[in-house]
Amino acid sequence: MIEPANPRWTRRPEGSNWGDFGPDDQQGRMNLITPEVRLAAMREVREGKLFMLSLPLDFPGGDDEHSPRKAPRLQSNSLGGHNLCNHPITPTDLTCDDTVTLSLQYSTQWDALVHWGRQFDVHGDGNPVPVYYNGYRAHEHVLCDADGSGFKAAALGIENMATTGVQGRGVLVNLVKAFGPERRWIDHDMLMQAIDEQQVEIRQGDMLLLYTGYGDAVMAMNRQPDEAKLAQVGAVLRGADERLLDWIKASGVAAIISDNQAVEGFDLENPADGPGGMLPLHDRCLFMLGVHLGELWWLKDLAEYLDAQGRHAFLLTAPPLRLPGAAGSPTTPVATV
Ligand code: UVW
Predict the structure, then answer these.
(1) Where are the domains of the chain?
(2) Pocket test for ligand 1, best of 103, 107, 267, 279 (most atoms within 8 A of CB)
(3) How far apart are CA 51 and CA 43, in angstroms?
(4) Sign for the pseudo-dihedral over CA of 276, 289, 246, 180
(5) Which of 2, 34, 98, 278 is the most exposed place for a label (fewest CB within 10 A)?
């Protein structure tokens, strides 16, 4: 196969699609959501009823000492020495005006393509360099201050996803129905079993949603997450299963979304060999294929409705914030059925 010429790389990871959407592509498989795909998604709307698919953004709740992500903090802005909290701006009018400090991936979120990269020998000269999707370089296209604090992705930031609008056909596979609400590691065969049993038709350009029940447990804990209990609930994809990863490539899905923490399970004790060891599905999706991952979505209401109706597909509208240079973003997704 002749690979497309590219100034950042002359050799792409085997099995990746780098360059297939253009030499400087930064939107990955969002490109597969064409106007025709979107029109087909709109034809899935039969009732005009909608489901909002976000947790409140202060869920899961609290600050986990093992996570860099902290709960959002709101503060009133101040102007001329006045806090703009119930501020009498005129004798008759009052106002509130505020600022949030928000870990962008604390709650319902999209991962940007810059969220996951790795060392790769882009020129086949024996010198691996740290890169992201389509060969964009750490330290050149993705910049931090010398102490690692300030952050700006001049390539692959979440705004590239936002400008697509993120509207297309969603299809939901109900893993709670297939395997129960307990923690299960879902490999290729189990996912195919659930898809076949539920007769889910997955088309190129679809956004695939996996309902695991993890979000239900998070919601029930009401901002006081019990990590030990949460580790026992909700299916997680087995990212080390090559057949599962190959299916993701072959299926043509544009994005994968779940109500759990990371779509795939973390196996910190037994990381898989080879590239993307700790999170191989992140490696395959974000780094190799430009497939965005959505995490910690609220899927219970939608999943129950679809199950009762014997349906699986809907119109999904889920833009992230158009925040230049960010590695992820909250989203308030809407499914219209
Ligand atoms: C990690 O935790 C590394 O990522 P994610 O937000 O995709 O779960």
Answers:
(1) 28-57+106-336, 74-101
(2) 279
(3) 17
(4) positive
(5) 2
Taking CA 136 as the corner, what is the angle to CA 160 and CA 332, rounded to the nearest 5 degrees?
Answer: 25
Is residue 329 lining ligand 1, measured as CB closer than 6 Å?
no
Q: What span, in angstroms and rounded, lies between the C-alpha atoms of 235 and 237?
A: 7
* Percent of the chain surpassing pLDDT 70: 98
Q: Are the C-beta atoms of residues 228 and 178 closer than 8 Å to each other?
A: no
Distance (Å, whole) CA 254 – CA 257: 10
Round the average pLDDT of the chain to a whole number and report it. Answer: 95
Classify domain 28-57+106-336 by CATH architecture.
3-Layer(bba) Sandwich (3.50)
Residue with tokens 């196969």: 1
Distance of CA 127 to the CA centre of its chain: 31
pLDDT tens, residue by residue, 25-77: 999 999 999 999 999 999 999 999 999 999 999 999 999 888 999 999 999 99
pTM of the predicted model as reported, rounded to 2 decimal places: 0.96
Angstrom CA distances, 167 to 65, 143, 315, stand at 36, 30, 7
* Count of C-beta atoms within a 10 Å radius of residue 328: 25
The Å distance, Cα 239 to ligand 1 centre, comes to: 13
